[in-house]
Design goal:
The protein has 15 helices and twelve strands. By secondary structure, the chain is of the alpha/beta class. The chain has two domains: 142 residues, ATPase, nucleotide binding domain (Nucleotidyltransferase, domain 5); 187 residues, ATPase, nucleotide binding domain (Nucleotidyltransferase, domain 5). Helix 1 crosses helix 3 and helix 10 crosses helix 11. The two termini are 23 Å apart.
Amino acid sequence: MIILALNCGSSSVKFQLFNWNTQQTLAKGNIERIGSGELANHSEAITKILNDLIADKIINDFTDIKAIGHRVVHGGDHFNCSVIIDEHVLSTIKAVSNLAPLHNPPNIQGIEAATKVLPNVTQVAIFDTAFHQTLPEKTYLYPVPYSWYENFGVRKYGFHGTSHLYITKRAAVLLNKPNDQVNIVSLHIGNGVSFTLVKNGVSIDTSMGLTPLEGAMMGTRSGDIDPAIIPFMVDNLNLDVHEVEKILNKQSGHYGITGGLVDRRDIYNKANQGDGKAKLSLEMEIYRIKKYIGAYVATNPDIEALIFTAGVGENFSFLRQEVLKELEHIGIILDYEKNLQTNSKNGETLISAPNSRIKIYVVPTNEEMVLIEDVVALIEGRYQQHQNYTYSFGRH
């Protein structure tokens, strides 16, 4: 059975074509800078991926693909596990798109583009929010009127769940521990950024909230701010609240500080050329990541490892170095030389010093493998929620 996993980010599409019968990856890749390059939208990107698979003779035609798994960022409180997509599921995903305005729309485009090309193929939605269903009330509730939660579902949902799940399962292997004894901080740092505190193998706190806007400073998103800034800027810019929200999602973070830069490579190069705003932008991100690590270590003294993942976390050694600098007092000691030499091409790599109480790893994420596992489990009728399911990628 050949399965296609599609992971549509805000400006990218990652894919993996997998033969389940032989347990082989047939092809994988990543199309970036969608909307600012040759490809105008995610529909065009997915069509190109499918056509390239045929042109490269990886598949004979589209009918070789028997199922497709889609990463979907937000399921609201409608979905707490992966589901086979039908019209009702798709319409529900559309209905909660306002909670993830950067991500659910491209996720939907991916589903619709795949449906157009492969109308008879089973498609599955795997939700970022599912892994965080284990958050306790004290973590997921906001200190606002409780009726907001009861009537409107206002709570922390958390995101990047497929990535944090994968990292948790791999941590069990790296630490040689059962899944239910893993205590880590998973640091997913890409254009979008989120951190998850894992205790005994499950998510108990995470940085993103009701929407992916809460938490860390990101490529175009502000992350944590004083909520009073919103009405303040509504008055001062003569905008409505939704226009300000759009600015916080699409024109803030690194983009807002630097005046248009998002890619950390570009920002780093500009900073080295003496650009003050680029230098400031990196300093702000580094400081905020450091604060989250400190908070998570304080709330779970059993943490055994910090794990950096996603494009920036895996490849930007300077950021890792600066984030971990001067954390020796809480048992985090980096091997600076090993860190400098490590990127995603090295695979799973230990970068902490031998005397570090808390181990530090770089682990390339594989969200697509999570998608593939859930697709097969649903098709074969043996799906269980993430916390109880034994994934093949968790094996040695």
